[in-house]
Amino acid sequence: MSSLSLAVRDSSTMLRRNLLHARRYPSLTLNLLLTPVMLLLLFVYVFGDTMSAGIGGGAADRSAYIAYIVPGILLMTIGSTTVGTAVSVSNDMTEGIIARFRTMAIHRGSVIVGHVVGSVIQSVASVIVVGAVGVAIGFRSTDATVLEWCAAFGLLVLFATALTWIAVGMGLVSPNAEAASNNALPLILLPLLSSAFVPLDAMPGWFRPVAEYQPFTPAIETLRGLLLGTGIGHHGWLALAWCLGLAVLGHRWCRARFDAEPK
Predict the structure, then answer these.
(1) b/e 168-188 (16+ beta carbons within 10 angstroms → b)
(2) Which residues fall within 8 angstroms of residue 152, CB to CB, at 6 or more apart?
(3) Predicted TM-score (pTM) of this structure
(4) 70 and 139 in contact (C-beta within 8 Å)?
């Protein structure tokens, strides 16, 4: 077999391994999935009227706020899910299984590729679940065309891939699962400091740069524009640049860290 065929075969095996782990031990994924769901329900049913009145500057309209908040929650779901990836990678690195894999005739990068692809699949599945909750409470995307739906799905997959590579790197450098969870905490906090819940114009001047110059805000604004048929502006290019930049950076980081381990 060629080296490419071996890499694909071994990566597929590692992917099945990670998906089996996720199926047998779903508690971590479910716990991380509850965070965006609870935030969605909290902001819609507790703060929805007040937030929509403040944003719109007029009468309260909870349905308008649902349409505004769901795209941000979907991307927050990806950030939450990838925290589990960091913990899973850290467990592999500290429990000795990687040392066992190094003695076997398998492609060296297949372990990391299996984690990345498995995490992206879990992230997309989590987004579908949270999206279904959003639809159940009133979210509608009637203005989006088929092409915009495909672009939105592509953005979600690309964003999940970029964050997953970063999360895998965090798992590789963490001495234990608790440290990996703490290191990956910004992936949950950054969406809270973005335009997910309120527009940039409604933020204080000193805080707005924090929300504007980070990866989640352009991705949220792009997804919001695709799903709601509103303008995207420069956010589309910024989101693409952030996704590609984080993916390349994360890949290089993971490769350097994994190759630095004792052979």
Answers:
(1) bbbbbbbeebebbbebbeebb
(2) 144, 223, 226, 227
(3) 0.89
(4) yes
Residue found by looking up tokens 């990836």 in the block = 85
Residue 2: count other Cβ atoms within 10 Å of its Cβ. Answer: 7
CB atoms under 10 Å from CB of 96, counted, come to 9
Residue 98 CB neighbours (<10 A) = 16
pLDDT value of position 54: 63
C-beta of residue 152 within 8 angstroms of C-beta of residue 227: yes
Q: Please give the structure tokens belonging to residue 134.
A: 């959003």
Task: Give the C-alpha separation, 192 to 117, whole Å.
Answer: 26
Other CB atoms within 10 A of residue 243 CB: 21
**What are the distances in angstroms from CA 104 to CA 11, 117, 225, 232?**
14, 21, 48, 49
Residue 262: is its pLDDT beyond 60?
no
Instruction: Please write the tens of the pLDDT for every residue from 139-195.
Output: 988 788 899 999 999 999 999 999 999 999 999 999 888 899 899 889 989 999 998
Q: Show the beta-strand stretches assigned E in the chain.
A: none
Is residue 254 exposed (0-12), middle (13-18) or buried (19+ Cβ within 10 Å)? buried
Q: Is 241 helix (H, G, I), strand (E, B) or coil?
A: helix
User: What are the tokens at 202?
Assistant: 């409604």
Q: What is the mean pLDDT of the chain?
A: 86
Query: Amino acid identity, residue 25?
Result: Y
Q: Would the pLDDT of 1 be above 60?
A: no
Model confidence over 16-43: pLDDT tens digits? 888 887 777 677 677 778 888 998 998 8
